Amino acid sequence: SSDLMTRVDIMAAGRKWLGVRWQHQGRSRFGIDCGGVTMMMFRDLNYPHTDLEGYSRLPDGHTIDQHMSKLLDTKAVKDMKPGDVVLLGEDLNYPCHLALVTELPAHDASRPGAMDLALLHASAEMSARRVVEHLLDEYWRKRIRKCWSFRGVE
């Protein structure tokens, strides 16, 4: 039916937060973090969810993994598509950063019109400290530890 959520809808819900400044545990236009972007997308899409609460500045990745795995369907990272959510980590034991997989025009001029996978996330890095979207390069790709898709999305 036409009221089913699409991957385009999911990307649009994430992009509404682009440029909002990073704030630990933030859940508003005044400040948001990586979990906040995901939770606000759920809210804006009327997707059933419970919020992630009470996590530290360096959260325990197991808690985030378990929470998200209840709300979304786990899939192989190699099968990720725009509109999926990924869990990223520097450390194999405690991945604790969430991002939305999107797509942006490829930088490669030899493929006019081509789209490549990108990431949208609330970056706490000093250079950004806001919600950003950028192509998924090798630096980020090798940090992806898990992938989920929204239930009911093809």
3D architecture notes:
The chain is α+β, with helices and mostly antiparallel strands and 154 residues long. Helices cover 23% and strands 27% of the residues. The protein has four helices and eight strands; from the N terminus they run αββααβββββαβ. The protein has a six-stranded antiparallel β-sheet, with helices on one face.
Q: Secondary-structure blueprint of this entry?
A:
Blueprint lengths: L6 H9 L11 E2 L2 E2 L1 H11 L16 H11 L1 E3 L9 E4 L8 E9 L9 E9 L6 E6 L2 H4 L2 E6 L5
Antiparallel strand pairs: 1-2, 3-8, 4-5, 4-8, 5-6, 6-7
Main features:
two-stranded antiparallel sheet; six-stranded antiparallel sheet; 4 helices; 154 residues; globular; alpha+beta; 27% strand
| Strands, count | 8
What is the percent of helical residues?
Answer: 10-25%
Write the H/E string, N to C. Answer: HEEHHEEEEEHE
Shape: globular
Question: What ranges have pLDDT less than 50 throughout 5 or more consecutive residues?
Answer: none
> What radius of gyration results from the CA coordinates?
15 Å
- End-to-end C-alpha gap: 12 Å
Q: Largest beta sheet, briefly?
A: 6 strands, antiparallel
Count of discrete alpha- or pi-helical segments spanning 4 or more residues: 4
Structural class: alpha+beta
How is this structure best summarized?
This protein has four helices and eight strands; from the N terminus they run H-E-E-H-H-E-E-E-E-E-H-E. It has 154 residues and is α+β, with helices and mostly antiparallel strands.
